[in-house]
Write a structure and sequence with these properties.
With 469 residues, this protein is mainly α. The chain is built from 19 helices and six strands. The strands form two sheets. It has a four-stranded mixed sheet with strand order 2-1-4-3. The model is unreliable at 1-19 and 450-469 (pLDDT under 50).
Length: 469
Amino acid sequence: MWKFPRTRYADCNGSEASEETEIAVNIGGVKRILYGDVLNRYPETRLAELVNRSTNATQEDLSALCDDYDELKREFYFDRDPEAFKCILELYYYGEIRIKRGICPIRFKREMDYWGIDKEHLNKRCKSNLNQMETKLAKIVERAKGILDALKEDVTVTRLQKCQAFLRKLMEKPESSLAARVISVLSIAFILLSSVVMCVSTIPELQVQDAAGNLVENPIIDCIETTCIIWFTVKYILRFFCSSNKLRFLISFLNIIDFLTIMPFYIVLLLGTATMGLGSVQQAVQSLRVMRISLRVMRLARVFKLARHSSGLQTLALAFKFSLKELGLIFVYMSVGIFLFSALGYTTEQSQPETLFTSIPQSFWWAISSMSTVGYGDIYPHTTLGKCNAAVSFMCGILAIILPLNLIINIFVTIYNKQYELEITAKHEIELMALHAEDEAQECQEAGKMPSAASVNNHSVWDSAGVTA
């Protein structure tokens, strides 16, 4: 028997009869005597409804509120978790619920739903933990369904839908087949090759002279660049064709990066064709050269294409996203320090006839390199006070960077562990669903019927994820 103090409440919502009513409940083999005046503090719950009906309801009505009812003992049986029920009773006696250590929050949420209790009655810490667990569960289920979609056979009807599903697996899911892995490896190879070629093309020794004597890119390098662009273009078009939501595809950040990597090539190609009609050949060549230089910067975006194939880069991007506050602190600290020490450096160095600190904005460059501990040495103080100011700026720069850095590292480690846990858990859920499907198939064979595709594919997606969480 659990022992809770029985407390009378003057503002209870039950009747006088229910206040004097006592009911015996058996929760998973553990018996408990409950009182009407206590339970009617929350009349919308299952227990309050049970105590109010116990005096004049039939056995059938009472059986609808419990798993079993013994009329002789007047005892209600519930096939529920007794430890979780002990936490449920705290609501009636203490006004809030605390989830005991060792109880799964997701399972406890189901217990609360069964007893008709809203999660708003949880204390703040338990409610926060439950919300985090539900968010984590949703991500696990989403990841598990994604893996399941990659593994299950196509059930689409039309030939176009089958083609789109096949291309989607080929382009978006490297783990689905050997061909998809090969395409993923080739994509990474082309990204690295195009980045290397872009850097090598700027080496003067590898460039060639045109008819006017100007250095231009080597034709071999242009061929390699063109091959890479063709690969990127074909893959982008195929991914756009097989996407289920075209608008979402176009506004996705990584897809925008993909578009920016191939757009400069075609813009330069179109401009080169357009300038052929100009009267002056020299003017056409000059215009084309200016456009190529301005658009070369946009080609740098192809480095970010590696984020599509690297979970580590994706985790780093998430860490920066969730560390905006800490990064803002670093920016504020550094900005204040740069303004302060550049002004002091300009003031202390004014006595020097050939001072390098000609103005406070000119001193910003020295303050930035000093506080970031880079120290280029192109601008440096000569006076004793200037050197002392520089020494203080070194120490303040180190502190300004180190203090928020630990928080950013902790955020990165937390996000990385969560991402790794989600991947492992999702794969574990797929294994559990495969085992359930095998068991169901075996049972159906014994019963002489075939299992349905929906039951095999969707069996225990939420349940198994809830158990893991």
